[in-house]
Amino acid sequence: MDPRCLALLMLLVASAAFGCSGANANEPTAADMATGTQASPQSTGGPATQQALVDQPAWLDVAPCDAEGFECDEPAEAEVTDPAITVHVESNGYTPGSDVIVGTFNFQPDQALDPMLYQIGSDGEVKESWRITNKHGGLLGDRRMLPNGNILFTIFKDGVYEMNPEGEIVWHYLDRGISHHAEMLPNGNVLAAGIYCDCVKEIDYETRKPVWEWHAGEAFLDYDNDSVFPGGKTFGQKSAYSTYSRVDMIKPDSWVHLNSAQLLPNGNYLVSLRNFDLVVEVNREGQIVWSYGPGILKHQHTPRVLDDGTLAVFDNGNQRAIVIDRATQAILWEAEVPEPATVMGEVNRLSDGNYKVLSSLASVLRVISPSGEQLWSMTITTESPSGGIYRAHMPELEN
Questions:
Q1: pLDDT by residue (tens digit) across 151-190?
Q2: Under 8 Å CB-to-CB from 103, ≥6 apart: which residues?
Q3: In terms of Cα–Cα distance, which of 117, 116, 118 is closest to 99?
Q4: Which DSSP letter does residue 65 get?
C-alpha cells in the first residue's frame, strides 16, 4: 500500500480510536470521570450535552493511556536527543529569514514511536531535537515557538505543553478533549481546540482554567436538517448537510472535527469545522456571526484571518491553498498542492509577503510567492513511512 494512503487510513483510525472524554484532566470530578463531561460556570457557550454513542465498536473505546508507554493524565516529559529525520532543501535563491519548528509522529499503533520536536534552519540543518519520552505513540498537533524561545505544542487527547530549549516542561494544561490547536494570546492566555470535545477553550495561563468555551454540539443542535445550518443560509451555497451524513458510530466524538481556532482583533473567534466544510466566526456570547465554506471548501484546515482582513485556507479536498475576500468570497490568491492532501495541511502569509504552504502527508513545506512561484521548499523524511508533520511554524516570519 502507498505509505501516504496508509498514513491517511491510520490517522482516521487513530482519530476514532482515541475516543472522547471531554474532561479537563486538571481537576476531574467523580461525575466527570463517569460521564465524560465537565461543566464550567465561566463558559458562555457551555459544554455540549453528550449524546449516547450509537452502535460503537469496541475498538473505539481505546484511549491513548491504554497503550504501553503512554502515561495519561500525567504531564509530558521531554529530553534533548539526536535527530531522527533527514532534511532536503531546494531554493531558487530565496532564503526564508526564519528557522522552522516541526514535530513528527507515527500513525501506525503497531509501530508506535515517541513524538519528536525539531528546530531546523532554513538551510536544512537540524539545530535542536527533543523527544517526548512518556507519551509513546502520541500524535502531535500544533507546535510553535514562543517569543521567550520556548515551544508550545499539543498532544492529541492529552493536553497543551510549554517546553524550554533544555527539554523541561515548564507549563501544562491536561485536557483529553484537546488535539489540534494551541496558541499563546496577547493577554497571556492560551487558546486551544480539539476534535475530542469539538470545542474551543481560552485558558487562563496562571490558573490553568478555561475562562471562555464554545462547543459546536450546542451551536448546531442535532444538525438533522438544513434549517439549523447557518453556512448555507448565509451565502446560499450548497449545504454540507446535504453532502455529508453524520457518522453515528463515532458521535459525538469528532462530529464536526473542530481542528483550529483564532482570536480575531474584534474579540471574536474564527473556528474551523472540518466535517461541515465550514469556517465560522463566533462572538463572545457563542453566536455564529459569519460563515463560509459549504459548496466551496472540502474538509479544510488552518483557516486564518490575515492582517489585511482576508482569509487564508488550506482546502484539502480541492488540493489547494487559497486566500479569499471575506466580504465577497472572491478568491484573491490560489496555489495548487501537488501531493495528495486528504488530511492535515497549513497555509499562512509570511511577514515578507510570501506564503507558507505545508503539504503535511508528504512532509513538504514550501514558500510560494504572490505570483505563484515556488521560491523554496523543505522536505522532511521521518523514521517511519507512515509518519507525518501536522504543522510547521516559522517564528521569525509569522505570529
A1: 999 999 899 999 999 999 999 999 999 999 999 999 999 9
A2: 115, 116, 117, 118, 140, 143, 153, 389, 390, 391
A3: 118
A4: G
Strands (E), 177-319: 181-184, 190-194, 199-203, 210-215, 258-263, 269-273, 278-282, 288-292, 301-305, 311-315
Q: What amino acid occupies position 61?
A: D
For cell 458510530, the residue is 249
Q: 79: helix, coil or strand?
A: strand
Cα separation, 313 vs 291, in Å, equals 13
Which H or E run includes 371?
A: none
Contact (Cβ atoms closer than 8 angstroms) between residue 347 and residue 314: yes
- In angstroms, the CA 193 to CA 149 distance is 23
Nearest to 399 by CA among 323, 318, 305: 305
pTM for this predicted structure: 0.80
Q: Side chain identity at 198, as an amino acid letter?
A: D
Instruction: Identify the three-state secondary structure at position 64.
Output: helix
Sign of the Cα pseudo-torsion (259, 201, 144, 68, in order): negative
pLDDT tens per residue, range 14-63: 333 333 333 333 433 222 222 222 222 233 332 222 222 223 333 233 34
Domains of the chain: 3-64+77-393 (2.130.10.10)
Q: Enter the C-alpha cell of residue 317.
A: 479536498
Q: How far apart are CA 55 and CA 39, in angstroms?
A: 26
Beta carbons within 10 angstroms of residue 391's beta carbon: 26
Q: What is the dihedral of CA 283, 256, 151, 358, to 10 degrees?
A: -110
DSSP character at residue 167:
S
The three-state secondary structure class of 110 is: helix
Angle 1-257-389 from CA coordinates, rounded to 5°: 50
Give the bridge partners for 262, in sequence order.
270
Helix (H, G, I), strand (E, B) or coil at 67: coil
Which residue bears the cell 478533549?
177
Q: Residues near 70 by Cβ (< 8 Å), separated by ≥ 6?
A: 64, 134, 135, 136, 137, 138
